[in-house]
Amino acid sequence: MGIKFLAAVNQEKNRWIYYSLGFLCIITSAWTGVFVSISFMNLIPQISFFLGKETTTYHSITAWIGVWVLSEIANFIISTIPFFFLLIGVFIATEWIHQRKFLTLINPTGFVQWRRLTLGFRVWFFILSLQLCGELLWMPHHFEWSFQPLQWIVFLPIALILTPLQTSTEEVLFRGYFLQAIKQLIKQPVVLAITTSLPFVMAHFSNSEMNRGSVWTGLTYGVLSLFLVAVTLKDNRLELALGIHAANNLFILLIANSADSSLRSPSLLTQVAFAEPQVSFLTTLIGAIVAYVFLFKDDHNFG
Questions:
Q1: How many domains does the chain have?
Q2: What is the pLDDT of residues 112-129, one digit of tens each?
C-alpha cells in the first residue's frame, strides 16, 4: 500500500485550526443527534395521549406503528439516532473542512477492502462463539433461553442495518479521525494507542454493565479498544476493526445479550448471572490475542 494509514492525514488541510473546527462540527452534530433522539422519545407520551391511552411506555403504540412491535426495538432504533448525526458530522469535517475523501478514514487509498472487513467479522464472531460455548459448559446456570422467533425475525434486519451504522461511526471517529489527528502529536505507537483508547472507554462508562465493577469493566473496554487500534495500525487500514466491532455488537444483540444491558434485544440467550468482571477482562484479552495472531499469522513481523 503506497500511503500509510496514519499518513492519510497529510493529504489535505491538516493544521490544528482545521481539526479544532472539525471536532466542533462533530460535537455539534452529536449533540444535535442526542436532542433529536430525546425529542423523539418525548413524543411517545403525546402520541399515547392522543390515542387515549393511560400508559406512557412504548407498548402504548406498538399496535399502531408497524416496526415498533416491541419496546426493545423502539429503544434500539431511537438509540442509534445520535450515531447517524455523529457520522454526518465526521463526514462534513473530513470532506468539507479537511477537504479530503471521507473513505481515507478507513483506507488511505480511498477505497474499502470488503474482504478484510468480512475477515475481521468472521474471526471475531467465531471467537465469541467459542467463548460462549465455554461459558455454557462451565456456567450453564448463568444463561436462560430467551429465543422468541417472531420477535427475533422482526429485529434481525433492523439490527443488521443499524448496528453496523453505530459501530462504524465509532470506528471512523475513534480509530479513524481521532487516531489520525493525534498521530500528529504522538509518535510512539503504544502511547498513541492508549491515548486514543481513553475517549472510547469514557464514552462507555454510562453503560449499565459498569455496575458489575467499573474498574475491571472499564479495563475490558480498554483491552477491546487497544486491540482495535493494534489491528488498525498493523493492517494499515480500518476494515478489520470495522468488521470486528460489528461482529461484537451483533453477537451481543442477536445471540447472547445480558439481563442488565442498557440496550435490550430479543437475543437467543440472555445472561442472567455474571462471573467476576476479572473473568470478562481475561477472556477478552485472550480472545484479542488469539484474533491478532490469527489475522497476521502470515506476517512474521508482529512488531
A1: 1
A2: 999 999 999 999 999 999
